[in-house]
Amino acid sequence: MKYVLVTGGVVSGLGKGVTASSIGVILKACGLRVTSIKIDPYLNTDAGTMSPFEHGEVFVLDDGGEVDLDLGNYERFLDIKLTRDNNITTGKIYQSVINKERKGDYLGKTVQVVPHITDAIQEWIERVAMVPVDGKEGPADVCVIELGGTIGDIESMPFIEALGRFSYRVGPGNFCLVHVSLVPVLNVVGEQKTKPTQHSVRGLRTLGLTPNVLACRSARPLEDNVKEKLSQFCHVPAANIITLHDVSNIWHIPLLLRDQKAHEAILKDLNLLSVTGEPKLEKWMARAKLCDTLCDPVRIAMVGKYTGLSDSYLSVLKALLHASLRCRKKLVVEWVASTDLEDETAKEAPDSYEAAWKLLKGAHGILVPGGFGDRGVQGKILAAKYARENKVPFLGICLGMQIAVIEFARSILKLKDANSTEFDPDTLNPCVIFMPEGSKTHMGGTMRLGSRRTYFKVIDCKSAKLYGNVSYVDERHRHRYEVNPEMIMELERAGLKFFGRDETGRRMEILELPDHPYFVGAQFHPEFKSRPEKPSALFLVIWSTCLHGGICVAPAR
Questions:
Q1: Is position 216 annotated as part of the catalytic site?
Q2: Cα–Cα distance measured from residue 81 to residue 132, given in angstroms and rounded to the nearest whole number
Q3: Do 234 and 197 form a contact (C-beta atoms < 8 A)?
Q4: Which of 61, 113, 373, 493 is deepest in the core (most CB within 10 A)?
């Protein structure tokens, strides 16, 4: 097994996740099998209980793992299926060590950060790296490891120590360190400054790790004299210093790495140069070029409560982008804060209210993504009502589907107090209820999570046709509440059809309004399995409906 470690310096948010994913892409394009691990130094066991404002979206895996959004990048870039163990956190490591101590596995020894925590980290990496993630038998050839945070962070010190020991243990030719750093340009002098990267590398070397490759983030390509200076002071060959300058879309990043021979530098350090070929990235080139040339816009109104941070809906955005490329249209996302659609905002901030409704009414389609809590719910209900009454294509995901049910019950069934027990535990008409198997005392890992099967009750419906006229589909879930099965008969008699259900027939998974051009809700999260070459069916169809005013029945590949 060969290992590529990606670390970051100077500041956070440099794009280590995209860099690690892109390294995986070029290695895979050279004919190697690749797996990925993300290390997050926070004490949380997983990302499940974190606010999207804190850490971006929570990405969900097939096995129900609630993980960092970078694992979504790995899956999309490499077209692989990871497991919860591919996301290592300080919480998981300490929990495993403490559990062993309680069982007596350490035979009475004093349990310490070194060697017990550092050994646990190394053992976890080695174990997970051997698990195949590409559907083939046997382990991958290369494991790309991303260390979250920035070199020098106190919480990442045990991982730095462990990785230094790990590099020594696996030996030369089996370990390559790629350090992502910042080369800023001061506007006053217009000169690329190398000191931040020099200090970052010095700190890395002090901690026992020496970079083999420098990946330098900058607004423009590095000048030759800057590369020479970095090479001299960081002890990295100039040929191994890569520029990751600003580009028009992230699909250019693997091409940047290839054009600067980054794959050769990495493969040489891993003793794999003689057994691999040149990277074949024709599809990536075509996709990057296509994304740059799209000019005919389609506007999708994203109605949510976390619109101030686009990473909160990263997978939804990527799924929309995948679909837009298939339809050869330019994606324009109109961010609509759901609270701005509410009557209260009309009184307190009339300008925000008018701007939000203008964006909503000017959109070709409306998407209400998942979320938790009652803030902004009324605005989402108003958005669903506008889409239903005005025949605007609508896709509701998770909470978005539940919102559509509440709106329908209030407007069509005339149940004015219809609500979810999440928002009103005492409602007399609970359209959405807490799942019987859920926990009301523990939040972490207690939802309905991971890949679950949805069976189509009727094949002749929009969603089944988009999935290729299949009888069932497997999609990923993350929810505590579900549509009340006691109200289904009444809702269906009024025209709201639940065509997708679980194996028991009592848990609603997909709803449609048959007399609407495209009004669909999904209890699952179709965005988590969307890929550039295989757009999610439900996202693809909203584009087709926006563009053509009718349903496209050609399934996604």
A1: no
A2: 9
A3: yes
A4: 61
Percent of the chain whose predicted confidence (pLDDT) is above 90: 80
Nearest-5° Cα angle at 447, 72 to 58: 25
How far from 312 is each of 55, 217, 309, 370, 528, CA to CA, in Å? 8, 24, 6, 10, 13
At 236-261, the pLDDT tens digits run 999 999 999 999 999 999 999 999 99
Torsion of Cα atoms, 525 then 527 then 528 then 533, to 10° = 150
Residue-level pLDDT at 546? 56
CB of 251 within 8 A of CB of 265?
Answer: no
* Count of beta carbons in the 10 Å neighbourhood of residue 140: 24
Q: Which helix (H) or strand (E) holds 39?
A: strand 34-40
CA distances from 429 to 295, 400, 419, 422, 437 (A): 47, 19, 7, 13, 21
- CA 226, 228, 229, 231 dihedral sign is positive
Structure tokens at 60: 């969900």
What is the separation, in whole angstroms, between the first and last Cα of the chain?
33
Q: Which own/partner contact pairs does 285-294 have at CB distance under 8 Å and 24+ positions apart?
A: 285/255, 287/251, 287/325, 287/532, 288/249, 288/251, 288/252, 288/255, 290/325, 290/328, 291/248, 291/249, 291/251, 291/321, 291/325, 292/248, 292/249, 294/324, 294/325, 294/328, 294/329, 294/330, 294/331
Q: How confident is the model over 85-110, as a mean pLDDT?
A: 94
pLDDT at 313: 92
- Mapped onto helix, strand or coil, the DSSP state of residue 246 is coil
d(CA 140, CA 481): 38
- Determine the Cα–Cα distance for residues 528 and 225; give it in Å rounded to an integer: 43
Cα 111 to Cα 44, 96, 99, 117, distances in angstroms: 21, 12, 12, 8
Contact 509, 500 (CB under 8 A): yes
Minimal CA–CA distance to 76: which of 537, 538, 532? Answer: 532
Judge contact between 173 and 210, C-beta under 8 A.
no
Q: Are the beta carbons of 24 and 178 closer than 8 angstroms?
A: no
Report in angstroms the alpha-carbon separations of 448 from 163, 440, 473: 35, 13, 17
Q: How far apart are CA 364 and CA 361, in angstroms?
A: 8
Q: State pLDDT tens for residues 54-82.
A: 778 999 999 999 999 999 999 999 999 99
Question: Active site residue: 398, 431, 546, 552, which one?
Answer: 398
Q: Is 398 a catalytic residue?
A: yes
Distances in Å between the Cα of 341 and the Cα atoms of 98, 185, 347, 354 are 49, 41, 11, 8
How deeply is 253 buried, as exposed, middle or buried, from its count of CB atoms within 10 A (0-12, 13-18, 19+)?
buried
Name the active-site residue from 146, 264, 527, 552. 527
Task: Write the CB contacts of 226 (distance below 8 Å, at least 6 apart in sequence).
Answer: 183, 192, 194
In the sheet that holds 519-522, the strands lie side by side as 330-337, 297-304, 365-368, 394-397, 519-522, 508-512, 497-501, 448-456, 472-479
